[in-house]
Specification:
8-stranded parallel sheet, 733 residues, single chain, 4 domains, 8 helices, 47 strands
Length: 733
Amino acid sequence: MIGQRVKVVFTRFGKAPAPCLSRALLLLLIAAAAGGWKAASAADFCVANDNEFALAAITAQFAPTTIELVQGTYHVDGTVFDDTQTTFQSFSLLGGYAPGCATRDIDPTNTTIQATGALGIVAELVGDVTIEGIRFDGPGGALYLDWTDFDHDIASFVQVNIRRNIFRGLQYGVVVNWVPSGSQTLDARIVNNLMHDNGNSDATACNGLGDGTLNLGAVEDSDATFTVINNTIVDNSLGGGICYGYAGRLLAYNNILYGNTGPDLSTANGTNALLIDNLFQTHNYHGIVTELGTLDTDPRLDGSFRPIESPPSPVIDSGFNNVHGGLPSHDLDGGPRIVGSAVDRGAYESSINDEFLQTVTNTSDAGAGSLRSAIASANANGSGLITFDLGTGCGPHVITLTSPLPAITAPIIVNGYSQPGSSSNDLDVGDDASLCVVLEAGNASVTRGLVVPASAGDGVSLFAEGLAFSNFSDTAIDLAAGSGHLIVGNRFGGNASGHALLPNGIGVQLDAAAHDSTVGGDDNGARNILGSSTGSGIALFQGTHDNQIVGNLIGVAAFLALPSVILVLIFGQTRIFFVMSRDGLLPEVLSRVHPKFRTPHVVTLITGIGVAFAAAFFPVGSLADISNAGTLYAFLMVAVAVLMLRKNDPNRQRNFRVPGVWIVAPLTILGCLFLFLNLPTAAMLFLPGWSVLGLIIYFAYSRSKSQLGRGIVEVIDEVGGEDTMVPIHPPHD
């Protein structure tokens, strides 16, 4: 079980029987003891009632645990989460599942965790945490996540995601506290959350980490990054809105902090904060603070904390798109995160669109309703939003281009997810996106797809999402200039909703004049899939700067194919060692065969350990160069050996005879030499050293032990299967 992931689905939705819980607890204790109280097997729990919730929480003490909550209400009081002395490995709390957990609707209003006592969820942690799609209700409780490296070893890198949740009516706030003893790194993202009406008015104003609504703390000299994006933190009666203290970095974008008791934003000495396009009125700054685009006015939110659209709230279309790690695909209630030229501030996106709207209604290459016409109109208008309505269903709808599209010379959004039937990915591992719009080159004259030309100014940007690209021999998306480009949720190569995508030359290219752009993102829906390219998946040219390449799947086909190739090579190497051992060139123990499986288990184990060691401690590029050098040398020697055998033993019986050997073999030798001489110098020098080591082994051991050298050969009786040693004439020196 160790190292495996266990899926647990409770088959009853009433209370779990006591004997079942007792047996489960016993198994957990055994697993913990066997692992020395380290992490045991990872577990997934489909939870539908309080007892199941309590059992899943216990599991998280001993193993990385994913808790999938069926829509409903759960009570944290009395669970191990409600205990200040409990240490957890890592866990995910995910709301919105249907019974059986086969499907999910991420909406924090359908899954509630309620705390009536003073603690709530209090967790001392070792590893990662994800909390998504849950409403946390009071009147008691808090969410307190703490990594203190005194009683247990914190992981070297810890990822925290708190996204699309509602915190309301809690006695205390949300705390993320980082206290490592070494060089561990924390990356915490708090995205698309609503925090309102928390606290009981008895808290004092925070100075750095304190009694605020969202408390972010790191011990001095520690490595921590807190990224806070598009949260709404309003009307709380605690010591402030965001309280940040002591060390690390705070990156805050597009947040609304308003109407809180105490300062809306407070930073302590020793901190470093970057604040871009937030809304808050009161603050208490210490440390280093860089502030851009702050609004200090009433955000004009309705009773559900959404921006009022008429007259429009100042938070609408006024945020910053190019945030660290990328924007999420959805807002708090599941709608698109960007509607218009810029994201709204806060957790909710309004329906107001300030862009010049163009809708593509057919797959024609030209004419009214075509993509070509939409780009031309948006360029002429100075900006534009391009959506798709290509009939009913996903299709997919393939737009085949017979000539290059117009270059993009204005800020333009091309939203493929607007096509009915489209959906973005919501899987942590894998991809379940449905892409319904395909751009495909129809002939050799169409070498590029969407293009921002080198003549474009910094104000020109392309936001492309939900599109598939096929058969562009040069580049699918070519960003030669401009800034603030967002390329998210697209597919290059592979398959799009049943349509095979032909290879592109390069997937996404950023030339020297393009900068401050994002390809992909931390959100699951933002990742691009780039495969089957004849060139690079993503190409960054010298001079481009301040770009983010985050969370993409690149070279998927190679990722899937390489393991099988590597396995074949490893198995081949074991058989070579096996034959060498059988012939006496290596110790006899290496040719032992397992009595049950009939495989050379000793040499397979030794080879596997050697390969694992090399892969773990040496750069993969250097290993590849060294392997290429050895492979080229082997091929060269095979060609030389074939020539020598053809000359010295022309009458030998051959099952296969190389045609044109006096042409093929010399060309092989020259080709291998050419490729070898183009390898890095270190790889070329490694081969002679390795060859010298081989010669030492040969003359020190193999030559005297080889069966050929001793004048014997092993013959296997084809009927009885017995080995017979037959003398032969030894070779003359």
